[in-house]
Write a structure and sequence with these properties.
globular; mainly alpha; about 170 residues
Length: about 170
């Protein structure tokens, strides 16, 4: 913890993400119809710890891991349809909300990894994995809400887009 390297901050961020995945599993196990999501998260959780150690130790994320995650993403994007083409508020069921927290943690981990890359060489596959992981958590949150019959709330930004609604 006394190290000055950004690597420690990255390891803390990815540990937090892995912990949040465990929390999401516990929450989703109590919601109806979410067994498939729980199974996916049980596969993702150890990968999150592999991402954690892949900078200080040996690279433990493989092209096969990335391909598996990409397949999960494609499957759930197809299921979500139009919902993934809009910006939605991070809300809904407890499970979906937990997945949104995981998504945010994955993004923070990505950013922390970027800081590490300013100090040392970082394998590109780790950036690819964390970026895709954030997207997977998003589409899983859409699915979790759908399973609980909770509608997404579209967010319309006042800061971006057309002025005056035209």
């Amino acid at each position: 913890m006394r190290e000055k390297s950004c690597l420690v901050d990255y390891e803390i961020r990815t540990d937090s993400m892995t912990t949040q995945i465990g929390h999401a599993i516990a929450v989703l196990e109590k919601e109806k119809g979410t067994g498939e999501i729980v199974s996916i998260l049980r596969h993702i959780q150890p990968l999150a710890y592999h991402v954690n150690g892949s900078v200080r130790g040996r690279l433990s994320i493989t092209p096969e891991d990335l391909a598996w995650l990409d397949g999960i993403y494609d499957e759930f994007v197809a299921r979500a349809g139009e919902a993934v083409k809009q910006f939605v508020l991070p809300q809904g069921s407890h499970g979906a909300s937990s997945l949104h927290i995981c998504r945010s943690e994955a993004k923070k981990s990505y950013r922390a990894l970027h800081k590490v890359s300013e100090e040392r060489e970082v394998p590109e596959i780790l950036f690819q994995f964390l970026g895709l992981l954030a997207n997977v958590f998003f589409v899983l949150s859409i699915e979790a809400n759908k399973l609980q019959n909770i509608e997404e709330i579209v967010f319309v930004s006042k800061a971006y887009g057309k002025i005056g609604g035209s």
